[in-house]
Amino acid sequence: MKKRVRLTQNQKVDIIKAYLDLTPMAELARQYAVTRQGIYKIVKAEGIETSAAPMEVSCSACGTVFLRHRFRIRRQKHHFCGDDCYHAFLAAGNGRPYIGNRQGQYRAREIVSTHFALQAGHIVHHEDRNTLNNDLDNLRVFACQGDHVRHHRGFDVPVLWDGRY
Asked: How many C-beta atoms lie closer than 10 Å to residue 51's C-beta?
């Protein structure tokens, strides 16, 4: 039988703050060695809404306030009220256009594999998004496609290999 964990008041405050900062309940439960239901009770006792109801966010391009579900807010750094705002955000220089070419991607894997032991799941990323530019300074290696996507969405992700160094 598992030993029952008693949380201090400071830990409860930290849990509430982390939940409001969009940390999932399951992750908090693992971190504090309690059940998700225990986290749920702490959050509910504080009067915080825990339903799957959408939350208000503002558009990164125009500032319009609209509703988004919590999981989408966690997953994306920038939020847009529509395609027009997304394209306006890119046009303003906040994103870089993608120049795709499969041959450049294959060539990049060949080049990186001479300097780093690439494995099947590793992703070679072109920093300037031009797959024809296979200079070492332009290439990075991520552990998986998920890390690669998180990097593109603006999150801080560990890079396994960086061609600049």
From this structure: 6
Please provide the DSSP assignment of the chain as one string: -PPPPPPPHHHHHHHHHHHHTT--HHHHHHHHTS-HHHHHHHHHHTT---SS--EEEE-TTT--EEEE-HHHHHH-SS--SSHHHHHHHIIIIIS---B--HHHHHHHHHHHHTTS---TT-EEEETTSBTT---GGGEEEESSHHHHHHHHTT-----SEETT-
Which tens digits make up the pLDDT trace of 27-47? 999 999 999 999 999 999 998
Instruction: Please state, in angstroms and rounded to a whole number, the distance separating the CA atoms of residues 68 and 145.
Output: 24
Going by C-alpha positions, the residue among 39, 47, 89, 46 that lies closest to residue 64 is 89
Q: What is the pTM of this model?
A: 0.51
